[in-house]
Amino acid sequence: MPHDHSHSHAGHDHGAGGHHHGPADLENVGRSFGWGIALNLAFVAAEATGGWWANSSALLSDAGHNLSDVLSLALAWGAMLIGKRPSSARYTYGFKGLSIQAALLNAALLYLALGVILWETIDHLRHPAPVNGQLVMLLAGAGIVVNGFTAWLFSRGQQGDVNVRGAYLHMLTDALVSVGVVVGGALVYFTGWLWLDPAISFVILAIVGVSSWGLLRETVQLSLQAVPTGIDPAAVRQFLLTQPGVTGVHDLHIWPLSTRDTALTAHLVRPSGTDSHFLHDLQHRIQDEFNIGHITVQIEPGACTHESCDAAHP
C-alpha cells in the first residue's frame, strides 16, 4: 500500500501548554535568569554575613537554601541556553529535551528545600533560642524585596514553560518564607513568644507545598512524554477525523520535545489520496488550533484496517 508523508516544523516556538513564545520572549527570560542569579548571589553573601554577625542559625541556614536556589536558576538557564544549539546527525531534535530534565530536577529540588526548611523549623520549635531580632527582620525584609522582584521577573514566562515556572516557584517560596521570618521576628520581638516564628513557618510551608504539587506532577508527565497540559488528545483526534476526505485515524502520538515545543505524528486514512494543498492547510490548522509546531502526517489511501483505527462518523 503506498503512503504519503508530510512533515512540518514551524519556524517559531510553541509552548507545551499552548502558549506562544517568540525570540523576544526567550531573550526576556534569559535576562530574568541573569538578574535573578546576580541579585540572589549578592543577597546570599549579605545573609550569610548577617547570620554570622547576629548569631542566627536560621539566617545561615536560609543563606544555604538561597544558594541552592541560585544553583537551580543556573541549571534552568543553562538548559535553556544549551537547548538553543542546533541539531546534529545523532541528536536530531537538538538538545531541547534538557529543559524537561532541568524542570524535573528543579521541582525535586524545590521539595527537597521545603523538607530542609521543615526540619529546621521543627528543630527551632523544639529548641528556641534568642537571636538579634532586629537584624533578622532587616535581612528577611531584604529577602522579600530580592526574591519577590525575581519572582516577578519570571511571572510572565512561567505561564507557558514549566522550567521557568520552577524558577518562579523557587523565588516565590523564598519570598514567602522571608515574609514569615519578618512577621515571626516582629511578634517574637514584641511578645517574647519564641514558638510563633516556627508556627508561621509551618503554615507557609504547607501553602507552598500544596501549590507546587501541580508543577511536580506536570514535569513528571513531560519526562514520560505524556501529552502536554493544555492539549486535549481527544480534541486533536476528532479534529483530524473531520478533515476533508479522512475516513480514519490511527497511531496518533503527541509528545513534548521540550518545555516549549510539542510534536505530533499521525496516520490518516484518506481513500482519495493526498495533495499538497490538503497537507499544507492541515499543518497550519494544527499549529493554529493546538500550538503544535512539529508535525508528521502519513496519508494512507486504502481502507481503515488498522486495529487502533478510529473511523470518521458519516
List strands and helices in order, with pairings:
Blueprint: E1 4-9, E2 13-14, E3 20-21, H1 23-54, H2 57-83, H3 98-126, H4 133-155, H5 162-191, H6 196-211, H7 213-223, H8 233-241, E4 248-256, E5 262-269, H9 276-290, E6 294-300, E7 310-311
Parallel strand pairs: 5-6
Antiparallel strand pairs: 1-6, 2-3, 4-5, 4-7
User: Would you give the CATH topology of the largest domain?
Assistant: Alpha-lytic protease prodomain-like
What helical percentage do the residues reach? 55-70%
Mean pLDDT: 80
Shape: elongated
Which sheet architecture does the biggest sheet show? Answer: 5 strands, mixed
Summarize the structure.
This protein is α+β, with helices and mostly antiparallel strands and 314 residues long. The chain has helices spanning 23-54, 57-83, 98-126, 133-155, 162-191, 196-211, 213-223, 233-241, 276-290, and strands at residues 4-9, 13-14, 20-21, 248-256, 262-269, 294-300, 310-311.
Question: Explain this structure to me?
Answer:
By secondary structure, the protein is of the alpha+beta class. It folds into 2 domains: 26-224, Alpha-lytic protease prodomain-like (Up-down Bundle); 233-300, 2-Layer Sandwich (Alpha-Beta Plaits). The protein has helices at residues 23-54, 57-83, 98-126, 133-155, 162-191, 196-211, 213-223, 233-241, 276-290, and strands at 4-9, 13-14, 20-21, 248-256, 262-269, 294-300, 310-311. A hairpin with a 5-residue loop joins β4 (248-256) and β5. α1 packs antiparallel against α2, α1 runs antiparallel to α4 and α3 (98-126) packs antiparallel against α7 (213-223). The longest helix has 32 residues, at 23-54. The chain is elongated.
